[in-house]
Amino acid sequence: AGFEPLPDGAEEPSAEELASLVDEFYAARTRVESLGSMGENDDGVVFQGEGDPMSAAGVVADAVRLLAERRNGIGFRLDTLGLCGADDVERLLSSGVLARGDRDMRRETRIATVSVFLPAANPAKYAELLRPKVVDGRGFGD
Q1: HSE of 44 in the Cβ direction (CA atoms, 13 Å)?
Q2: Which residues lie below 8 Å from residue 85, measured CB to CB, with a gap of 6+?
Q3: Res 12 pLDDT > 60
Q4: CA-CA distances (angstroms) from residue 107 to 24, 77, 118?
Q5: pLDDT grade, residue 66 (50/70/90)?
Q6: pTM, full prediction
Q7: How many C-beta neighbours within 10 Å does residue 6 have?
Q8: Out of 13, 63, 101, 137, which residue is the most buried by the measure of CB atoms under 10 Å away?
Q9: For residue 57, what pLDDT is reported?
Q10: Are 38 and 106 in contact, with CB atoms under 8 Å apart?
Protein backbone atom coordinates (compact mmCIF):
# COMPACT_ATOMS: atom_id res chain seq x y z
CA ALA A 1 0.00 0.00 0.00
CA GLY A 2 3.04 2.26 -0.29
CA PHE A 3 3.95 2.28 3.37
CA GLU A 4 7.60 2.06 4.39
CA PRO A 5 9.26 1.40 7.74
CA LEU A 6 10.23 4.41 9.81
CA PRO A 7 13.86 5.43 9.41
CA ASP A 8 16.19 4.49 12.27
CA GLY A 9 15.82 6.96 15.13
CA ALA A 10 12.46 8.33 13.92
CA GLU A 11 9.74 8.81 16.51
CA GLU A 12 6.75 6.49 16.48
CA PRO A 13 3.51 8.17 15.35
CA SER A 14 1.22 9.66 17.97
CA ALA A 15 -2.44 8.69 18.37
CA GLU A 16 -3.44 11.94 16.66
CA GLU A 17 -1.13 11.23 13.69
CA LEU A 18 -2.53 7.70 13.29
CA ALA A 19 -6.10 8.96 13.55
CA SER A 20 -5.41 11.68 10.99
CA LEU A 21 -3.97 9.15 8.52
CA VAL A 22 -7.03 6.92 8.84
CA ASP A 23 -9.34 9.93 8.60
CA GLU A 24 -7.53 11.10 5.46
CA PHE A 25 -7.87 7.64 3.89
CA TYR A 26 -11.61 7.51 4.56
CA ALA A 27 -12.13 11.06 3.31
CA ALA A 28 -10.42 10.18 0.02
CA ARG A 29 -12.08 6.77 -0.29
CA THR A 30 -15.65 7.93 0.17
CA ARG A 31 -15.27 10.37 -2.70
CA VAL A 32 -14.29 7.54 -5.06
CA GLU A 33 -16.31 4.54 -3.94
CA SER A 34 -19.23 3.74 -1.70
CA LEU A 35 -18.63 2.11 1.67
CA GLY A 36 -22.29 1.07 1.80
CA SER A 37 -24.96 2.47 4.06
CA MET A 38 -23.85 0.28 6.99
CA GLY A 39 -20.17 -0.01 6.03
CA GLU A 40 -20.72 -3.41 4.43
CA ASN A 41 -18.17 -2.61 1.71
CA ASP A 42 -15.53 -1.50 4.20
CA ASP A 43 -12.73 -3.92 5.05
CA GLY A 44 -11.68 -1.74 7.96
CA VAL A 45 -8.22 -0.83 9.22
CA VAL A 46 -5.42 -3.10 10.45
CA PHE A 47 -2.81 -2.13 13.02
CA GLN A 48 0.32 -4.12 12.22
CA GLY A 49 3.79 -3.55 10.94
CA GLU A 50 7.43 -4.21 11.35
CA GLY A 51 7.03 -3.71 15.09
CA ASP A 52 4.26 -4.99 17.31
CA PRO A 53 1.31 -2.62 17.83
CA MET A 54 0.81 -4.09 21.31
CA SER A 55 4.03 -2.37 22.37
CA ALA A 56 2.10 0.87 21.79
CA ALA A 57 -1.28 -0.35 23.08
CA GLY A 58 -2.07 3.03 24.66
CA VAL A 59 -1.41 4.90 21.40
CA VAL A 60 -3.50 2.39 19.42
CA ALA A 61 -6.41 2.67 21.89
CA ASP A 62 -6.21 6.47 21.86
CA ALA A 63 -6.19 6.53 18.03
CA VAL A 64 -9.32 4.35 17.91
CA ARG A 65 -10.98 6.55 20.55
CA LEU A 66 -10.19 9.70 18.52
CA LEU A 67 -11.58 8.12 15.36
CA ALA A 68 -14.73 7.01 17.19
CA GLU A 69 -15.39 10.71 17.89
CA ARG A 70 -15.08 11.51 14.17
CA ARG A 71 -16.51 8.49 12.33
CA ASN A 72 -18.96 5.67 12.95
CA GLY A 73 -18.57 2.05 11.99
CA ILE A 74 -14.84 1.65 11.39
CA GLY A 75 -13.82 -1.89 12.20
CA PHE A 76 -10.22 -2.28 13.32
CA ARG A 77 -8.07 -5.38 13.54
CA LEU A 78 -4.90 -5.54 15.61
CA ASP A 79 -2.26 -8.07 14.50
CA THR A 80 0.30 -8.89 17.18
CA LEU A 81 3.27 -11.22 17.55
CA GLY A 82 1.98 -11.91 21.05
CA LEU A 83 5.27 -10.98 22.72
CA CYS A 84 3.82 -8.19 24.81
CA GLY A 85 3.70 -7.81 28.54
CA ALA A 86 0.68 -8.18 30.79
CA ASP A 87 0.57 -4.39 31.26
CA ASP A 88 0.11 -3.87 27.52
CA VAL A 89 -2.69 -6.44 27.38
CA GLU A 90 -4.42 -4.88 30.40
CA ARG A 91 -4.08 -1.41 28.86
CA LEU A 92 -5.91 -2.60 25.74
CA LEU A 93 -8.55 -4.60 27.65
CA SER A 94 -9.39 -1.69 29.94
CA SER A 95 -9.37 0.95 27.18
CA GLY A 96 -13.02 0.49 26.17
CA VAL A 97 -12.15 0.24 22.46
CA LEU A 98 -12.47 -3.53 22.07
CA ALA A 99 -15.69 -5.01 20.71
CA ARG A 100 -17.04 -7.51 23.23
CA GLY A 101 -19.94 -9.92 23.20
CA ASP A 102 -22.51 -10.58 20.50
CA ARG A 103 -23.86 -7.05 20.16
CA ASP A 104 -24.21 -5.67 16.65
CA MET A 105 -21.36 -3.16 16.57
CA ARG A 106 -21.40 -2.26 12.87
CA ARG A 107 -22.16 1.36 13.68
CA GLU A 108 -19.47 1.63 16.34
CA THR A 109 -15.80 2.34 15.79
CA ARG A 110 -14.02 -0.39 17.73
CA ILE A 111 -11.22 -2.96 17.51
CA ALA A 112 -13.29 -5.88 16.30
CA THR A 113 -10.51 -8.49 16.06
CA VAL A 114 -7.16 -9.20 17.67
CA SER A 115 -5.01 -11.76 15.83
CA VAL A 116 -1.79 -13.39 17.00
CA PHE A 117 0.62 -13.96 14.11
CA LEU A 118 2.83 -17.05 14.50
CA PRO A 119 4.63 -17.60 11.19
CA ALA A 120 6.58 -20.68 12.32
CA ALA A 121 6.14 -23.77 14.44
CA ASN A 122 9.50 -23.63 16.20
CA PRO A 123 11.74 -20.95 17.75
CA ALA A 124 14.62 -21.32 15.27
CA LYS A 125 12.44 -20.85 12.19
CA TYR A 126 10.58 -17.98 13.88
CA ALA A 127 13.87 -16.18 14.58
CA GLU A 128 15.07 -16.82 11.02
CA LEU A 129 11.89 -15.42 9.45
CA LEU A 130 11.24 -12.43 11.70
CA ARG A 131 14.61 -11.62 13.26
CA PRO A 132 12.72 -10.16 16.24
CA LYS A 133 14.16 -7.59 18.56
CA VAL A 134 13.44 -9.27 21.87
CA VAL A 135 11.64 -6.90 24.26
CA ASP A 136 11.92 -7.40 28.03
CA GLY A 137 13.62 -10.76 27.44
CA ARG A 138 10.54 -12.30 25.79
CA GLY A 139 10.80 -14.47 22.72
CA PHE A 140 9.07 -17.30 20.87
CA GLY A 141 9.54 -19.81 23.71
CA ASP A 142 7.93 -17.59 26.38
Answers
A1: 18
A2: 136, 138
A3: yes
A4: 19, 16, 31
A5: very high
A6: 0.79
A7: 13
A8: 63
A9: 92
A10: yes
The model's confidence at residue 28, banded by pLDDT at 50, 70 and 90, is confident
To the nearest whole number, what is the mean pLDDT of the chain? 80
CA distance 132 to 17: 26
Cα–Cα distance, 38 to 139 (Å, whole number)? 41
**Ordered DSSP codes for 76-104:** EEEEE-S---HHHHHHHHTSS-B--SS--
Residues 6+ apart with CB under 8 A from 8: none
CB atoms within 10 A of CB 3: 8
What's residue 58's pLDDT? 93
Q: What angle do CA 26, 31, 35 make, to 5 degrees?
A: 60
Residue 28 CB burial class (10 angstroms; 0-12, 13-18, ≥19): exposed
DSSP string computed for 11-49: PPPPHHHHHHHHHHHHHHHHHHS---TTSTT---EEE--
